[in-house]
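User: Hi! Is it possible to get a structure for several chains at once, not just one? Here's what I have:
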Amino acid sequence: MIKKRTDLAVEAREIWRESVGETTQLEGVEAREKESFGLKVEIVKILDEKGEQSLGKPKGTYITITLPDEHEEDAFDNACFALSSELRELISDSGKEQILVVGLGNRYITPDNLGPNTLRHTMVTRHLVERVKEYFGNFRPVSTLEAGVLANTGVESAEMVRALCEKVQPSAVIVIDALASRRLSRVCTTIQVADTGIVPGSGVGNSRAEISMNTLGVPVIAIGVPTVVDAGTLTADLMESAGMGNPDPEKFMSVGGNLIVTPRDIDEKIAELAKIIGYSINLALQENMTIQDVTAFLS
Amino acid sequence: MIKKRTDLAVEAREIWRESVGETTQLEGVEAREKESFGLKVEIVKILDEKGEQSLGKPKGTYITITLPDEHEEDAFDNACFALSSELRELISDSGKEQILVVGLGNRYITPDNLGPNTLRHTMVTRHLVERVKEYFGNFRPVSTLEAGVLANTGVESAEMVRALCEKVQPSAVIVIDALASRRLSRVCTTIQVADTGIVPGSGVGNSRAEISMNTLGVPVIAIGVPTVVDAGTLTADLMESAGMGNPDPEKFMSVGGNLIVTPRDIDEKIAELAKIIGYSINLALQENMTIQDVTAFLS
Amino acid sequence: MIKKRTDLAVEAREIWRESVGETTQLEGVEAREKESFGLKVEIVKILDEKGEQSLGKPKGTYITITLPDEHEEDAFDNACFALSSELRELISDSGKEQILVVGLGNRYITPDNLGPNTLRHTMVTRHLVERVKEYFGNFRPVSTLEAGVLANTGVESAEMVRALCEKVQPSAVIVIDALASRRLSRVCTTIQVADTGIVPGSGVGNSRAEISMNTLGVPVIAIGVPTVVDAGTLTADLMESAGMGNPDPEKFMSVGGNLIVTPRDIDEKIAELAKIIGYSINLALQENMTIQDVTAFLS
Amino acid sequence: MIKKRTDLAVEAREIWRESVGETTQLEGVEAREKESFGLKVEIVKILDEKGEQSLGKPKGTYITITLPDEHEEDAFDNACFALSSELRELISDSGKEQILVVGLGNRYITPDNLGPNTLRHTMVTRHLVERVKEYFGNFRPVSTLEAGVLANTGVESAEMVRALCEKVQPSAVIVIDALASRRLSRVCTTIQVADTGIVPGSGVGNSRAEISMNTLGVPVIAIGVPTVVDAGTLTADLMESAGMGNPDPEKFMSVGGNLIVTPRDIDEKIAELAKIIGYSINLALQENMTIQDVTAFLS
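Assistant: Yes, the chains can be modeled jointly so their relative placement is included. Here is the combined structure:
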């Protein structure tokens, strides 16, 4: 099997199709596309074990939003509306249940800093709803956790999330993480939302324990953005795009292809993406909020 | 009673003495002084409820180390040796028990950033001891937690510490926190170590729940450095030092005395203090380590 | 003479009045007050040498704006409108002349970081006006300089400013700097604008060479915010406010009063102030800009 | 001609050899290799116009040091000794002449942040030699400039350097800059030192004006580290290394190959490299300094 590292379901599907030929039917998988606030939204549903095996990902719904160019008019607003609308659908509870928002990743490594950074744009209300009921009684209680990374804490992030979940008992968890892509062109330009939580196996290789309904007992929504690609996969991608066949990235691993790279302007891109995701979470979780309301609350 | 905000036991004792006169015997409290690596070390023991009431602090041992001027030769080394030696005595276990080091405080407010900053200088070994036994089998397992603050997480730091303690089951906890002092001259120049954990009540006023043997079931050592002083207390302090009596800081509260201030060069001072405390923790927790070994491990 | 350290003309005037009694006429100085966008604006004009001597500041116009509480509605907008309106008046040229905006201060010391921080919110257009005339031909050319501090560069900031001025030949210079105040209550709550440039002498003591029409040959507008106060002056201020006389701060210098302090939440306050000043400069320098236009340009 | 973007002379030579075949004599260029403190040091001398044309770089000496793996024993020390030894040779003056050290690049883009970061490790002595002669009379006067980038300042960095040079009149200038490489394996692992200054043309494409003896009137030593590679060049590099021919990177430009990438852990690498370069400059410029002395001076 061709080994192109990806955390994106749309790419896993692409890769599968390439490997078997366009005409074969991919069983156990449903895919469709739609437009939302001018953005392309692709939905891949993995329905059963057959689908799981073909795509190497657990059963569930994977939504991929392609971001507009940041210089397009209303790029930020449209990205927030499209993402929050998908999130709202996945959460779909009474609107007052408690949510825990978890930022994964290493805050000291820029392309891994998406999760911690997003928390800076997340409206934290759990303590306010409890203590200042007269003003915040109508808000949904939201708490956050920067889970840290094993090398810095000595504790698996999944362990940390479980620990806090048992204490605060949220009705659902949202985790934000940086992902790996097979295509440089998708890096920092797509957001994947999945209702499966995070199940190690695919992706950057740095296998972490699972963060999911299985391990937490409540629904886990994962929001991820590809921020890196390994050099071997990148090479295979560009060769393919240039019409030079469809080589196996493994070929390049022994000659430097295992080095993981990120765009030069990653600082800026992470800053923009973290803001989009944070705002979208707020719009999805709190009722009748506008982007201006969020800005006012956060400042 | 005179209300001078302080988190330091040596200052609570001073204040008590001032309020009752030098001749009165302070029951339930023992105090002595020694020198260690050229540094002044003051030890206040609160022995019983009488002592607790007089000083407004829980029973336990409070050690205050006065730091040398940073430009003195070997200032950094001596500070580390003196502090680690006190820590080692308070821990005094077999040397291989697991420890959790907790940084309290808001990472985005410089004078409150001591705890988070210290974690950057703490050797994290829990995962290494488990996974790379051949190299790290002789290390003591250490994990860390940046507990965050309520406004940013929606979760009390004490709640967060309890949650993680239940999961990782350390044999003891070390918490680092920024404190308030009554005297500007002690700000950033003294380190207090106590075996009482953190029990809200005195201090900056921002009452947090308790982090102690009571609530965690294991010994809790608190390391604190005064980094702030309220303007009213500062005014009373300078008036007293200038021989202008011993006014009640409350007098200044309505005219701006409740504003909390910190030295202008606090960024630099916190950086230096965090390094001293982190290194001291490493020297105390890991056997046969030199300062050079710590530097090598951390880099 | 009473030595209360201040960089603010309104305070120098206050101090003078206190020292001589309310009834005496302050010759060579004109003072008035107005309201602008709901904010108090005080204008002190030093008219001649007599005024210079009384207030210890060079001839010129000093405008002090008292900021609204940041939680007040439209606090940010009103602060920007009030400040930009004063700036526009002081500049009052054809609107297309080149301006150099200089941030003074040490970027690694939070309360000194106002100048460098403001530059992040300043629209830099000099290269665009030159190179992308079709889009930016109507903008005023603006360049910026972070002048650094002697300890970090080995070069006086005034020397650095002169060097760049000779190269880029602006028609006027705006310098932003952090100041010292006599009153804690003014720290981070007032903005002083002066058409005198920066002439060392008063202030934090760290005497820098002059940055003014004298030394640069073009008008220099100085924007300053008090971010620190020395402990002795603070003590004298609170004693006075509490009705305990009007002591000389010198009294406290030998007992710690020379320590310079800043509010505990200075990080946040500098961030907010830098944004207000940056936006105000943009509104003043570029024609027909709204706050939204500035945000769009900068993002 | 094959267009592989590189700022390194050793790579320009490689590329030339590949394009013409191993046997052809490269006229006007001398190359040799040596070992220094265990590190490989390659020296390419471009002797005349023929050499200039073949390699697309100005006449001069280009020294490339390959860094040891950072986990090797004494890696940091050896890197500093090797680099400082080359620098000392290039400077070779009386040892007391004034030097200006310039950090180029955008401090807010991590892979471009090498120059600004290096200045933090550079001993700044110009003001001390002047003002505290009794202690620093034996030091060489060194000043620094963070030149900024056009987009943030509106002023070309070359213009800024010229402005300051005219004021402080150094006897030589050292500029530090981030470079582009053709090979991912050289990114962050090699340091190039050249006595040619910086002459735009090759490299990242973002053509800046020249910083050289030509424009400043004094010798300019350029220290550069490749921190980025464009995706097309990377692809061609890995294909070649994997034995898949030697394709022209231009082929990939239209399909994403013009995206510039950097290693995922660039934050950490830049921090390490900046320290090596800063320390090496200090060892080269100041007499009889040890690494410990530098650490003591800087802290």
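The CA atoms of residues 191 and 221 of chain C lie 13 Å apart. Residues 202-207 of chain C have pLDDT under 50 and may be disordered.

User: Great, thank you!
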